[in-house]
Amino acid sequence: MLEELIELILPTIISILELMGIFVVTFSALHAFGEYLQTILFHRIFDFKVELANGLATALEFKMAAEILKTVLVRELSELLVLGAVIALRALLSLLIHFELKGEQRQAGHDEKR
User: Fold this and answer.
1) Average pLDDT of span 19-43
2) CA 49/CA 57 separation, integer angstroms
3) Structure pTM?
């Protein structure tokens, strides 16, 4: 009975998490693009790269949460291997974005000291 309830509810929760990730990417990209335009048009200083990278990292966390919940629904080893590969790739992307953010922040701090 509990297993049937989980199988009924979990796909909806996974879809909601995926949509949240999509929303975060879309909002972050639009916001960063707006800031980029203001930087070009009005010569305003704003680090839109960090803003976009933060949004992408947050979106990846939502997508990772959805992937982790998908492991509950896995029935075969081949599905688990594919899911594991997707999780590993998303974790790698998250790590790369994290390092990019740290590099940008270090560069911004270094430029301010000059």
Assistant:
1) 94
2) 12
3) 0.78
CA-CA distance, 48 to 34, in Å (whole number)? 9
pLDDT at 104: 76
Exposure of 31 by Cβ count < 10 A (0-12 exposed, 13-18 middle, 19+ buried)? Answer: middle
Span 85-112, average pLDDT: 81
- Which runs of consecutive H residues, i.e. helices, occur in the chain? 2-42, 48-70, 77-113
SS3 assignment, position 53: helix
Q: How many CB atoms lie within 10 A of CB 69?
A: 15
48 vs 54: CA distance, rounded Å: 10
* Residue-wise pLDDT tens digits, 3-20: 888 889 999 999 999 999
